[in-house]
Specification:
two-stranded antiparallel ribbon, about 270 residues, heme, Cytochrome Bc1 Complex, Chain D, domain 2, mainly alpha, 2 domains
Amino acid sequence: MVREKKRRSGGRRSPFAAIALIGAGLLITGGVYAGATAAMAATDTKTQATAELTVDDGQKLFQANCATCHGMNLEGTGDGPTLIGVGELAVEFQMATGRMPLQMQGPQAPQKHPQFTDEQIRAIAAYVQSVAPGPTFPKDEVLDGKGDVAHGAELFRINCAMCHNVAAAGGALTEGKYAPALTSTSALHMYAAMVTGPQNMPVFGDMNLSDEDKRDIISALLFQQDAVQIGGFTLGSLGPVSEGLFIWIFGIGALVALTVWITAKSN
């Protein structure tokens, strides 16, 4: 009788075990279903956005967000220049770098996080290109970074370093304007800047720099972005300004401190 009791008590299961097992099964099933649904929804949304964003969608986006300053027909207003002839390359550059839409008037439009998705920007650019064609996107080989780095560095020093600094670290211009740093700029935006001449930058047409020259400059800048900095602190790569300030503060400061210490010791 005692042995039978032991066997029966050992074979019993708690009533909460079945509940816990059912709950775990429901939780796992629900998690898998939710994950699969979210993945499918994201894929559908992406496909739908890509399929729906046409030139007509670009026109609607332009009229809702850009026409206030640039006019309903790209003719420009007192608050913004005309976009006739600027082309899709300029539109992509200005919007993808966050310079447009402009938040406030100033000496220069600052770079910031873009307010539109890549698909929306391409749609608006396609609309502008369809109304008044202009500079368009280059061939892939121009942006591949496989040009002549040495020749590109020489061209950069001759044509660009006076504003962007020889190390592409950027620099100040007149009246609150500035040449931005190129240390993280993409190849497409380097090309777009040379072709469209945004802000205070001049336009480098084929008569100034051929596509092969532009490819070499882009290759040199991409090489410089990936290069390992050697020789100690770069100090922003701003040349004698930051270097002189460093020497003045730390070098002369150390000499003054040493002089004070020697004088105190002698007394």
